[in-house]
């Protein structure tokens, strides 16, 4: 095996990958074959990829014979995993080859688009290894990696790339096997099928392509976000990169007329990764706030809303000023002339949603209630109770959220309001002699009030006495 590997390294390596790619021992065997000298393996892996995407850029003698049933996607993924398997010190030996490959991808990015997600993962592994060795202390090393990454990053996030970034049909080596084994792989056949299907997208094939590329890119960006500081070594550049992600991917989905259905689970996970980056509020705070305060936000399914709780909590902690302003405007009237003669149905619906949103914000938080002035919140809820009885059920729900999430030490200012309103509600129902005349709205309020009382009794709070 060693003799064969020495004589026909590229073909042996490709066959070895094809046969043993799924084996957990493949890297140990490979390290044994190359004598733990990655400098004798990395160039062949890179040539194998380039031979399938841009063969004219390398000499004939260095090209693969393409006899192995492998796509460039398979090989790029293997290259990433192989790099992970190496000792950190080895990065210095193969640095020039790795940087040369990144330059090749940058110079011909249009035909490498479909493997850019894994190229980004490759860069992240390089950066994390360089971070731990003396070799990485050289300014030129850090600068070259950061510059190449930023160029590829900006190219991938350009609007044209997102819409038109599809597998180049001139690449003949993309196999259906690769498409079936990797959920992030963009298959030429699948894209062609979508293009031929008029029902695939109301916006035409380009929009369908863009959505596929967006999902693949979003997954890759989510994977590399924790490594951005290692790649860029500059906090301002990290914030700029995160802002680009939010502007290009997150805001695009948020502005869609189909929001919240346009906001896929993958985009939610990507946004969660962005929000976790320390000192990154500048990049995401305005956009996340706009999303949460969008009137359509509360129309999302329960499962989707559950995934947003951590985002809502982060936003509320980071943007208390905007949250307080939102609470202050819960009762603000619209400018329509109909308001002079009473609230319109739409305004009443909006008030209900606003109070429900406040409930969700509290349910998403922790026991300190974002350190908001509870007296101010209760005063606002009291105003709403008086001005719009139709929103009483939502106010009771909000009180239940507050009681469930906040530490009892923060609740002293709500009890008088709770006692008075519960008593009013129960007495108003008891005063009705003919129960058949009770309106549905009154029943909604009664049910919500009973749920609040039930919650208080179950919690058995010391300050709440019947």
Please render the helix and strand layout as text:
Elements: H1 2-7, H2 9-20, H3 26-33, H4 42-53, H5 72-85, H6 91-107, H7 109-112, H8 116-130, H9 139-157, H10 159-164, H11 176-181, H12 188-196, H13 205-224, H14 228-232, H15 235-254, H16 265-276, H17 281-293, H18 302-318, H19 320-328, H20 345-364, H21 374-387, H22 392-405, H23 415-430, H24 440-459
Helix pairs in contact: 2-4, 4-5, 5-8, 6-8, 6-9, 8-9, 8-13, 9-15, 12-13, 13-16, 15-16, 15-17, 16-18, 17-18, 18-20, 20-22, 22-24, 23-24
InterPro entries: ARM-type_fold, DOP1, DOP1_C
Domain DOP1-like C-terminal: 78-465
Region (Disordered): 175-203
Provide structural commentary:
Residues 78-465 form the DOP1-like C-terminal domain. The structure is a single chain. The protein has 24 helices and no strands. It has helices spanning 2-7, 9-20, 26-33, 42-53, 72-85, 91-107, 109-112, 116-130, 139-157, 159-164, 176-181, 188-196, 205-224, 228-232, 235-254, 265-276, 281-293, 302-318, 320-328, 345-364, 374-387, 392-405, 415-430, 440-459.
